[in-house]
Amino acid sequence: MARVCGRILALCFVVAVLAAAGVAHGQLSPTFYNTTCSNLEGIVRSAMTQAVNKEARMGASILRLFFHDCFVNGCDGSILLDSTANFTGEKNAGPNANSVRGYDVIDTIKSNVEAACKATVSCADILAVAARDAVVLLGGPTWKVELGRRDATTASQSAANSNLPSPGSSLAQLISAFSAKSLSARDMTALSGAHTIGQARCATFRSHIYNDANVNASFASLRKMSCPSSGGDATLAPLDVQSATTFDNKYYQNLVVRQGLLHSDQELFNNGTQDALVRQYSSNTSAFSADFAAAMVRMGAISPLTGTRGQIRLNCSKVN
Ligand code: HEM
Ligand SMILES: *[C@@H]1O[C@H](CO)[C@@H](O)[C@H](O)[C@H]1NC(C)=O
Ligand SMILES: *[C@@H]1O[C@H](CO)[C@@H](O)[C@H](O)[C@H]1NC(C)=O
Ligand SMILES: *[C@@H]1O[C@H](CO)[C@@H](O)[C@H](O)[C@H]1NC(C)=O
Ligand SMILES: *[C@@H]1O[C@H](CO)[C@@H](O)[C@H](O)[C@H]1NC(C)=O
Ligand SMILES: *[C@@H]1O[C@H](CO)[C@@H](O)[C@H](O)[C@H]1NC(C)=O
Ligand SMILES: *[C@@H]1O[C@H](CO)[C@@H](O)[C@H](O)[C@H]1NC(C)=O
C-alpha cells in the first residue's frame, strides 16, 4: 500500500476511501435511523406495549421470533416471508410450524413504521427492536439495539430445520449449534435464560418428564397431569414454573432444583461445564442481566445484510 501510495497518490486516496466505506457498511449502529426515522423506537415501543398488555405471552413469542430469524442465515427477516413459487419459507419448518407466533404483531408495527418513514426501516431491524422491548416490558434488562440490517429476498426451510437447536439436544449439541453462529457456551447459557418467559407444548418436553433421570420427581408429576404419555401434544406448560410472564433469573433457580422443562434446559445443569454459571445466574440477577443483554447484541449481529445487499421490504411477509 505504501509503495502504491507513493507512486499513485490519487489511486491510493480512492482505495482508502472505499476501504473505510466498506468497513462502515459492514457494521451496525444504534444511531442508524437517527436522521431518517428518528421516532422508530417510539413507534415500536408503543405497539409492543399494546401487544404485551393484551397478552403477556406475546413478549415471549416475539423474543423467540427474533432468535429463530437470526439463527437461519442471519438476522435478515427471512422467517417473516411467506412461501412463494420460488422458495419454501421458514414458517412451516419443524421448529416453527404451529409454534412460532407474533407475525401479525410485526406486520402491524411495520405498517405503523411505513406510515411514518416510508421504505426506510427493514423488517429485520423492527424485529430486533421489538425483541428488546419485549424483554423490557416483561421486567428484564435493556440494551442499545444495533441497527442497519436489511431484509432477505429469500428464505430457507431446510436451513431452519438444520440450524435451530432441538429440545432433545445434549449440552455438546447446544454448544456446537451456538458455536456454529460464533456464539460461546457462555452466550448459549445466558441466552437460554429467555426460557424464563413463555410456554412450550407437551410434545417438546414429554420425553424429559417421563424418561429422564435428572428431573425433579414432584415437578415431573405436576407436569404429567396435563401432559399425558400419549396425546395432548399441543397442551402448553410454562417454561419457567415460577413466573412465566416475568423476565427474571428464576429459570436458573429452577435448573438448580432440577425443574427445567425441556431436556435441553436441564442439560445446562447436569454435572457439566455450565453448572457453575447456572449457579451464578441463579443467585445474581445482575450477572445474568448483563450477560443476557450482551449476548442478545451478539446474536443480533449474526450475518446481517448491510449496505446495498438485500432490500427494505415494504411488507414483511413478501419481497418487493
Ligand atoms: C438453547 C437452545 C434452545 C432450544 C433447544 C429451544 C427450544 C424451545 C422449545 C422447544 C420451545 C417451545 C416451543 C413450542 O412448544 O411451541 C421454546 C420456546 C421459547 N424459546 Fe427457546 N430454545 C432455545 C433457545 C432459545 C433462545 C436463545 C431464545 C431467545 C433468546 C429462546 C426463546 C424462547 C421463548 C421466549 C420461548 C417461548 C415462546 C412462546 O411462549 O411463544 N429460546 N424454545
Ligand atoms: C440518536 O438518537 C438517540 C435517541 O434519540 C440519541 O440518544 C443519540 O444521541 C442520537 N445520536 C446521534 C449521533 O445523533
Ligand atoms: C420468482 O423469481 C423470478 C425471477 O427472479 C421473478 O421474476 C418472479 O417474480 C418471482 N416470483 C415470485 C412469486 O416471487
Ligand atoms: C450429579 O452429581 C451428584 C453428586 O455427585 C449426583 O448425586 C447426581 O446423581 C449426579 N447427577 C447426574 C445426572 O449425573
Ligand atoms: C425438587 O423440588 C423441590 C421444590 O419444589 C426441592 O425442595 C427439592 O430439593 C427438589 N429436588 C431436587 C432433586 O432438586
Ligand atoms: C453479581 O454480578 C455482578 C456482575 O457480574 C458483579 O459485579 C457482582 O459483584 C455480583 N454480586 C455478587 C453478590 O456476587
Ligand atoms: C402484506 O402482504 C400479505 C401477503 O400478500 C397481505 O396478506 C397483507 O395484507 C399485506 N399487508 C399490507 C399491510 O399490505
From TrEMBL:
Q: Which InterPro entries match?
A: Haem_peroxidase, Peroxidase_pln, Peroxidases_AS, Peroxidases_heam-ligand_BS, Secretory_peroxidase
Mind listing the GO biological process terms from this record? hydrogen peroxide catabolic process; response to oxidative stress
Output the Gene Ontology terms for molecular function.
heme binding; lactoperoxidase activity; metal ion binding
Cofactor mode of binding and number, as noted: Binds 1 heme b (iron(II)-protoporphyrin IX) group per subunit. Binds 2 calcium ions per subunit.
Write out the residues that bind heme b. Answer: 195
Annotated site residue numbers, Transition state stabilizer: 64
TM helices/strands, residue ranges: none
Q: Which residues bind Ca(2+) 1?
A: 69, 72, 74, 76, 78, 90
For Ca(2+) 2, which residues are the binding ones? 196, 240, 248
Spell out the disulfide connections: 37-117, 70-75, 123-316, 202-227
Alphabetically list the UniProt keywords. Calcium, Disulfide bond, Glycoprotein, Heme, Hydrogen peroxide, Iron, Metal-binding, Oxidoreductase, Peroxidase, Pyrrolidone carboxylic acid, Signal
Q: Does the keyword Metal-binding apply?
A: yes
Q: Please state the span of the N-terminal signal peptide per the UniProt entry.
A: 1-26
Coiled-coil residue windows: none
What's this protein's name?
A: Peroxidase 1
Q: What family does the database annotate?
A: Belongs to the peroxidase family. Ascorbate peroxidase subfamily.
Q: Where does substrate bind?
A: 165
Occurrences of domain Plant heme peroxidase family profile (ranges): 27-320
